[in-house]
Amino acid sequence: MNDLSHAPAEAPSRLRSPATAWSLLFAAILLGGILSVDAPRARPDPAGVREVVQQQLQALAAEDAGTAFALADPGLRTRFGNADEFLAMLRAQYPMVVHPSSVLFLKPQSDGSMALQKVRLTDADGSNWMVTYVLNRRGDRWLISACMVTPDAPQVMA
After folding, report:
1. Domain residues of the chain, as ranges?
2. DSSP for 8-64?
3. Is the dihedral of CA 49, 51, 54, 56 positive or negative?
4. Which of 42-51, 89-98, 139-148, 149-158 has the lowest mean pLDDT?
5. 0.85 cut: is pTM over it?
6. Which tens digits make up the pLDDT trace of 57-85?
């Protein structure tokens, strides 16, 4: 009688399938490529990123559509056509950005031509939001090209 208690356990059949092998190989190659690339490190650009977002938030709070619209990049301005349409869209879809009750700026990140500025907002109802602004450099200044808003749920550490 053979004692198989010391024999190596056979791998489950799903780990031996060609699809799994190719997936693992592709993941290893992809991870190796990502780790070997000397990508530019994200770095804050204290000379303008936060200030542009702050200026737009102040303009929106003051219902100054012209100033808020002027801080948007040309593509965004073309999409909305004029300052009044831009402000009307923000009022309808992003009221937390127009009249926040509190604002907390996180550290901006930039590669020199594009920047991200995250802002935690609390609206008038007490709901928390994470707003991510995407800015593009135009000459010597930053302009806002997009804004993404998501609910900011409290994080509990266990």
Report:
1. 49-151
2. PPPPPGGGGSHHHHHHHHHHHHHHHHHHH--PPPPB--TTTHHHHHHHHHHHHHTT-
3. negative
4. 42-51
5. no
6. 999 999 999 999 999 999 999 999 999 99
Is the pLDDT reported for residue 112 higher than 70?
Answer: yes
| CATH architecture assignment, domain 49-151 | Roll (3.10)
Distance CA 82, CA 73 (A): 13
What one-character-per-residue DSSP string does 76-127 give?
HHHHH-SHHHHHHHHHHH-HHHHS-SEEEE---EE-SSEEEEEEEEE-TTS-
Which residue in this structure is represented by tokens 């804004």? 147
Q: 94-130 in b/e burial notation, b at 16+ Cβ within 10 A? A: bebbbebeebeeeebbbeeeebbbbbebbbeeeeebe
Share of the chain above pLDDT 70, in %: 67
Q: Return the structure tokens found at 5.
A: 């208690």
